[in-house]
Specification:
Largest sheet: 7 strands, mixed
Oligomer: single chain
Number of strands: 13
Number of helices: 21
Shape: globular
Strand order of the largest sheet: 3-2-1-4-5-6-13
Structural class: alpha/beta
Strand content: 5-15%
Distance between the termini: 10 Å
Helix content: 40-55%
Amino acid sequence: MMKTILLFSRNDLVNLYGGLAKRLKNEFRFVHLAYSHVERRILNEKYGITDVVVFKDEIDKLFHFIKYDPALDTIIDQEVIKHTGQSFNLNAVVQSDRTFAYLKYDECLHLIQVYYTFWNQMVTRFSFDFMVHEPVALSFLQLAHVVLLKHDILYLTQINVFGEHKYNWIFVSAHKGFLVELPEKLAAENTEEADLSKASKFLNEFRSNYQLIFPNIVSKTKSKNHFSYLKQSITAILRILKRRTVYKPDLPASSIDHVELYGHKSGSGLVDTLKNIYDYTYKVRYDSFDRSLNYFYYPMHMEPEAVVLYWGDGLYKNQIKLIENIASQLPPHYYLFVKSHPIVKEPVLYIDIKRIKAIPNVKFLDPDVSGRMIIAYSKGVMTINGTSGFEGVLLNKPVFVFGNSFYDLAETVIKVKNIRDLRELVYAAIAIKADETRLLKFIVAYLRSTKPGFVSYYLDYFDRIGLEHEDNIDEVSRGFQCLITLRS
């Protein structure tokens, strides 16, 4: 029986999902949900898709129709607790949505009820097996996960990862980032010599270079000189001006526009931004990378990002405090090396860097130093759930994961549920030598789960990668067909 997939097109994902729907129309039935009329128009004009539900229109109608009901909060609260594995409750949903920052509490609760009602109506109105969209990063997506899971519908997201091809991707659960095909692949007993040989070749190639997963996207603009200061300042000015002109809300703005309102009002002001760039350029002094030291590595995450707010169970929004806590749990004469994310729109706040550098056993490294090289000489990696954690797995290092990740099932991953447990876990891990044979078996299962193609249709990533859209859709569509047999 042909399976039905709900594709939720928002921003640049409209081109990925529009292209896939056009290519796979004989393999799947599709339900199209567009975030706004911008995406609906692209689906219509570029991909010939006319039957589209517009999310903002539906929410607007429900918002004015549904009266706030305090009793419903209790029901939603219990469902959130149940279907997030007790990681969140209703208030945690509100707190984790950064775009609620400019709304009153009662407006947030009303919107939650609207989103809850909307997703229940979608399940009733359309019968679908999967929803595919970006990771859970906002409250209306977290409510989608809760409602869909209640009805045994998988909400999946596609992420790019390391693999055998130039670009590789996997399907993960949108709420936790768990690699959905991996358990079945790990359970398979037919690991042949050819598979082990392929895994060994992949590991050797990975370990022989220090290249990033998206080298085209990382710009080396963080050097300390007058030109870099001027370039970053101009970029910041243009970004702030764009943010203030793209969305001009009528006053008073409707709370259903909280995402757009946040984009318009959030971030530092122009003066504070330029001051931070100046301080970062002329006052920050990076520590030298001394690989002879005993150290663990913490690569900073982009903020705000789904991995911090949701895949981290909403616990680790303050990375500076986490860094302080990690450093305090390490044995004597062990350091924590910290580096900012290679893909950031603006430098880490200077005040945060000062707090990091004030910790005696922490070294703050130049962002241009290869993260993989840092991991290679480290005693292990500390991460909420970033890609650097997987690089640690591939280099057979202990990887301490504070959140949830697609590589959770790897032998060297150590889940840290409570920061107070970290010291004991670290001391134990230092004494253990990793088993390369077990790693190879994990890599065999992992590679069987990966698919060729580029799926990170966010910001301007696809344009900067320089791929041909139609050719890329051809590649991605072949991997997409795994949904035919998933959960059959």
